[in-house]
Amino acid sequence: MHESGLEDARSTDPVERLLEDSWEHRGERASHRELVVEALAAGGFLLVAVPLAIPALLLHPVDPFLVALLVSLYALVAGAIRFPIGAGYMVPSYLILVPMLLLLPPATVPMFVALALVLASMVRCLAGRVSAEHILFSVPNAWHALGPALVLLVIPPTHGTVATAAVYLAAFVASCVVDFATSTLRESVALAVAPQLQLRVAAVVWLVDACIAPLGLLLAHVARHSHLSLLMALPFSALLWILERERSARIAQAQVRLELVARERTRLQAAVRRLGDAFAAKLDLSALVGIVLNGSLEAMDADAGQLTLAVGDRSSLTETTGESAHALILETIGLATRESGRPTQVEQNGVWALALPISFASEGETGRGALTVTRRSREFRDDEQALLHGLVKRAEMAICEILGHEALHEQAVTDPLTGLGNRRKLSAELNDRLVGAAGAEPEPFLLLLFDLDGFKGYNDTFGHLAGDALLAHLGGRLANSVAPDGTAYRLGGDEFCVLLPAVPGDMQDQVAGAAAALSERGERFSIGASCGAVLLPHEASTPDYALQLADQRMYARKQGRPSAVREQTRDVLLRIMHAKQPGLPDHSSGVADLAIQVGRRLGMGAEQIDELARAAELHDIGKVGLPDAILDKPGALDPDEWEFVRQHTILGERILSAAPALRPVATIVRASHERWDGRGYPDRLGGEEIPLAARIVAVCDAYEAITSDRCYRRARSTEVARKELIREAGRQFDPQVVAAFLEELEQPDELLVLTVSPDDEQAQELGGQVAEFFLPMLESR
After folding, report:
1. What's residue 487's pLDDT?
2. Residue 528: CA atoms inside 13 Å, Cβ hemisphere, count?
3. pLDDT the model gives residue 399
4. Element holding 391 (H helix, E strand)
5. Which of 140, 368, 424, 470 is the most buried (most CB within 10 A)?
6. Closest among 709, 262, 222, 766 to 528, alpha carbons compared
């Protein structure tokens, strides 16, 4: 009963508050300290009362019937009539105590009172209403009889004189003083009841005793003539018993109601705490607003509510629920609270409104808002305001977590250079459209994969900062060109992607616009793009296969795109190779085709694959410096001839390095005959010291050589070539490259390849090409 949330439901009177606090513990067994205190108090009483009573009994014999009648009546009153007050009970004992003091020797009365109290406790114990230890507690309760007994013993009253009233008053005061002193000492030590609070309890008891004492005097006067007249106390005792029963029942009902209120408040507070714990699990601001608002209405027993949030430059999020008649006051007080940033409670036309401000800051975004609730006729108490304040604090933390999660998610799916979606976002979008639409008929759409042509030369000429600026510029143009129906992405490096709805009438213009957006030219540069297009879901049912197919189509075209400076140099070198040995270009072209597929499977980037393709095409360029007699020799070469052959990679590097654009390719060509075990030439590199592109060329070159006719032997089967590669994996070849190569041999190769040049006319031609290719598929639906 000590919950702060119940202060409004509990009594404001200290005496009644003490009664409420002690009520639920009255039936419990006494503590060890309480037992010790009561035992000491009982022992002290007996040390005083017994020596006082024995001489009086010896000097003044008493009527046993009178003693038995008084003790029985006192036990009846003390056992049956117990008004709860403070931490204990009030007994109308003066109804019988006064006749005992006037009809019996005063010195014997404390002992007879203790006997009556013990008798009453024994009856209650036998009835199962109290524990046996309360028999001990009843003895020190007789201390109140000791004060008046001593006064009457010292100053016997003379009946019929004025002094008699003074003696009676002195006896009453003595009873009050002794009772207060002993009860205060006992309850402060045993129950920690403050003396000033005990004084207030005692004052109530004294007032009741003062009202009952005259009845006791009247009863004592009548009983002097007939002891049976004492039975006249029974009707009045019955009336007091009825009043005590009614009061006890009301107190018990009030305590039950108070406990119900406490449990209900605890339940609501627990529900609110659970709501707070659920906030972060709902990583969505709209869901959070609904949870907070509905939870607040339930916790406050409110009639209506409104929650408004404004985050950064987003539009405000507002939700209102409950009675529409409260809409105006909700809006008014909510706006005032958002502007002032302070809690507000007002009353208008019998409707109370409480508004609490909401403020938060997370990941660079700040915001504010207000939670407002209203109800009729009842003010929102302090504990309710504290509860709602706690709910708002939890909501603020949850909002920060949601904003942080959104910021992290946005960073995770956004390319920082261009602001476009990245590969992760593209994969998620493809998954939603392809896998997430299972069971439904998804609308057809185009996946366009672009790779810039000429960008590496631009980077080498103008520097990486200029290259980054160009990528950002082209990315923005691409996003604008496909908006609002399409979405643009940057996948890394100079690769871009677009998702477009496949609408026959608009397809040509959309693709042409995307192509033109990635085109740029200047005095010393010309940027175009190669494109691979896939129609979904017709050509692919999974995101991975869709990207793989678009990638294949794009790189196949990139391999055959119109020549720039580097391509012109490459063409010249291939013609030289053809003039020297007509079969070399065909062999190199086959190696290049295989190398591109393997490089793509191993996750190489666009520029890396471009260099790989050039190196594969030109890896034998050094052989133009070898004598025809060695190249065309049908038999085995001697050691000197072999030494001559091993120089061709160095010669190839020198030839290619003469063209600055082919210097990265020259490095790959030099290492193309190194071995995984370090026994190759010319530098005896081993393992991952060998460039990955060179390791790929080595595997593809070996496979092409085994399966082709040579002057010294005929071509062998692909199965023989496979076994040879497997046998040499880990010795001559990189095992990982061999595994990727063998996997690639199992894949079908179906390509649609598109080229985008800087010219708008060619961009339009590309759009028409895409439309012409895919239109039959769309019309067949």
Report:
1. 92
2. 21
3. 81
4. helix 382-412
5. 140
6. 766
pLDDT tens per residue, range 493-544:
889 999 988 877 677 777 888 888 888 887 667 888 888 888 888 888 888 8
**Confidence (pLDDT) at 755:** 47
For residue 16, the tally of other CB atoms under 10 A from its CB is 15
pLDDT at position 130, please?
74
Q: Give the pLDDT of residue 158.
A: 67
Q: How many CA atoms lie within 13 A of 405 on its CB side?
A: 12
Q: Between helices 464-482 and 504-517, what is the axis angle to 10°?
A: 160
What pLDDT score was predicted for residue 371?
A: 93
**Amino acid (one-letter) located at 279:** F
- CA separation for the pair 585, 619 (Å, rounded): 10
Distance CA 350, CA 300 (A): 17
SS3 193: coil
Report phi then psi at 633, rounded to 5: -65, 125
| Nearest C-alpha neighbor of 340 from the set 311, 368, 379 | 368
For the packed helices 692-706 and 606-618, what is the interaxial angle rounded to 10 degrees? 40
Task: State phi, psi for 476 to the nearest 5 degrees.
Answer: -65, -40
**Residues in the chain with pLDDT < 50?**
1-9, 562-565, 568, 579-580, 583-585, 748-758
Q: Whole-angstrom distance between the N-terminal and C-terminal Cα of the chain?
A: 74
How many CB atoms are closer than 10 A to CB 51? 10
Question: Cα-flanking dihedrals φ and ψ of residue 576, to 5°?
Answer: -60, -45
Over the stretch 47-80, which tens digit does the pLDDT of each residue have? 988 999 888 888 888 889 998 999 999 888 887 8
Distances (CA, A) of 436 to 414, 441, 544: 22, 11, 14
Q: Which amino acid does the sequence have at 107?
A: A
List, as one string, the DSSP characters of 267-302: HHHHHHHHHHHHHTTS--HHHHHHHHHHHHHHHHT-
pLDDT at 766: 61
Give the torsion sign (CA, 111, 116, 119, 124). Answer: negative
Angle at CA 550, nearest 5°, toward 546 and 552?
Answer: 115
- Measured CA to CA, the distance from residue 69 to residue 205 in angstroms comes to 25
Q: Give the residues across from 36 on adjacent strands.
A: none
Nearby residues of 253 by Cβ (< 8 Å), 6 or more positions away = none
What is 396-415 written as a DSSP string? Answer: HHHHHHHHHHHHHHHHHTB-
Q: How far, in Å, CA of 298 to CA of 284, rounded?
A: 21
Tokens for 690? 């060998």
In one letter, which amino acid is 347? E
Distance in angstroms (rounded) separating the CA atoms of residues 313 and 315: 7
φ, ψ dihedrals at 194, nearest 5°: -65, 140
Task: Give the residue from 543, 577, 570, 558 showing the smallest Cα distance to 493.
Answer: 558
Rounded to the nearest 5 degrees, what angle is found at the Cα of 768, between the Cα atoms of 766 and 770?
A: 70
Phi and psi at 375, nearest 5°, equal -155, 160
Q: Are 739 and 602 in contact (CB under 8 A)?
A: no
Provide the token pair at 383: 């504990």
CB 442 within 8 A of CB 481: no
Which H or E run includes 182? helix 163-190
DSSP 619-687: TTGGGGGS-HHHHT--SPPPHHHHHHHTTHHHHHHHHHHTSGGGHHHHHHHHTTT--TTS--SSS---G
3-class DSSP state of 318? strand
Q: Give pLDDT, residue 268.
A: 65
DSSP 3-state assignment of 84?
strand
Could you tell me which of 378, 379, 371 has the C-alpha nearest to residue 396? 371
184, 195 in Cβ contact below 8 A? yes
Distance from C-alpha of 551 to C-alpha of 753, rounded to nearest angstrom: 10
Going by DSSP bridges, is the β-strand pair 445-453/344-348 parallel, antiparallel, or unpaired?
unpaired
| Length, in residues, of the chain | 781
Query: DSSP character for 421?
Result: B
